[in-house]
Design brief:
CATH class: Alpha Beta
Structural class: alpha+beta
Largest sheet: 2 strands, antiparallel
Distance between the termini: 12 Å
CATH topology: Alpha-Beta Plaits
Order of helices and strands: EHEEHE
Low-confidence stretches: none
């Protein structure tokens, strides 16, 4: 079975609810694999290096990040 990786549900994601519009999940990722171009923009996951730790899942205030 392949390892799980973090994905973002863009229908739930609301970066404006994170402090200063900076994604909390992106800030907590130990490998910095969730990237935001600018504050208040949606983060993009770069799952090829994801270790599946789930830290980003717990950090998202809206529950928009999940493991698949």
């Amino acid at each position: 079975m392949p390892k799980q990786v973090a994905m973002i549900n863009y229908q739930i994601c609301q970066p404006e609810l994170c402090e200063k519009g900076i994604c909390q999940a992106a800030q907590t990722c130990p490998r910095k694999l969730l990237k935001q171009e600018e504050p208040f923009e949606m983060p993009d996951p770069y799952t090829n290096m994801c270790i599946g730790c789930g830290i980003c899942v717990r950090a998202c205030p809206k529950g928009a990040v999940h493991m698949i």
